[in-house]
Specification:
Strand order of the largest sheet: 1-2-3-4-5-6-7-9
Structural class: mainly beta
Strand content: over 45%
CATH class: Mainly Beta
Radius of gyration: 28 Å
Helix content: 10-25%
Shape: elongated
CATH topology: Porin
Distance between the termini: 60 Å
Length: 228
């Protein structure tokens, strides 16, 4: 009887530390890290987005006699947009940082001629950005800010004629958004970006030289991404 009791006590002493050890070391989470609580935002991803954009610019023309830049009115434009994005990010604790590139298409068209009526138009058909992202994650919800470089395909046209050869306009962008992970791979997002381009000068066939002063575009977008 005494021998049986001793064996039971020894068995209990060996089992209890084993249970405590299992509680001390977290299990592998299946995504390449130990001890990460909640959803892991690390890794590469690709996706698509749709949205709406609006913006404007003031415009000048070079007077052929005085050779001075004279005001030629303000313009406004808007368009539905859609495109693709891809990026990579890392998570450390609740902080998430990474880089993302995107390309969006639209048709932002506006009249830029106050002096002569609707003669000259500005047209932006493509926008691209390369941005850093910094965010705060609460499990499967990520709130982030973003900023970086922007570029646009910028063209002028005389009303009724094909666009004059497109120019590359460059500038900066900044904004922010929120992203929600639906499962291990699929995520949805809502995002705002403000894009500010540099001045764009264009020669038009009539002999005038036009300048769009710091064209801007605001984008509201919804998107979906697949993470690897």
């Amino acid at each position: 009887m005494t021998r049986c009791v001793c064996l039971l006590v020894l068995s209990s002493l060996t089992l209890v530390p084993g249970a405590k050890a299992a509680d001390t070391y977290p299990a592998f989470d299946g995504r390449g890290s130990y001890g990460q609580s909640g959803y892991d935002w690390s890794g590469a991803y690709i996706g698509g987005h749709v949205g709406y954009g609006w913006g404007g610019a003031s415009n000048d023309f070079l007077h052929v006699v005085t050779l001075t830049w004279d005001p030629d009115g303000d313009i406004a434009y808007q368009s539905v947009t859609g495109g693709l994005q891809a990026g990579y990010q890392q998570q450390h604790g609740n902080m998430v940082f990474g880089v993302e590139a995107d390309l969006g298409l639209g048709r932002f068209v506006g009249d830029d001629s106050q002096a002569a009526g609707r003669i000259n138009e500005i047209e932006i058909n493509a926008l691209a950005t390369l941005r850093g992202r910094l965010g705060w994650a609460a499990d499967n919800l990520l709130v982030y800010g973003t900023a970086g470089l922007a570029a646009a395909s910028f063209a002028k046209r005389e009303a009724g004629d094909p666009p004059i050869a497109a120019q590359l306009a460059t500038g900066w962008t900044a904004g922010g958004g929120a992203e929600l992970a639906l499962d291990e791979h699929w995520r949805v997002r809502a995002e705002y970006l403000h894009i500010r381009l540099g001045d764009v000068e264009t020669f038009i066939p009539a002999g005038y030289r036009h300048r769009a002063n710091a064209p801007s575009v605001n984008l509201l977008r919804a998107g979906i991404s697949y993470s690897f």
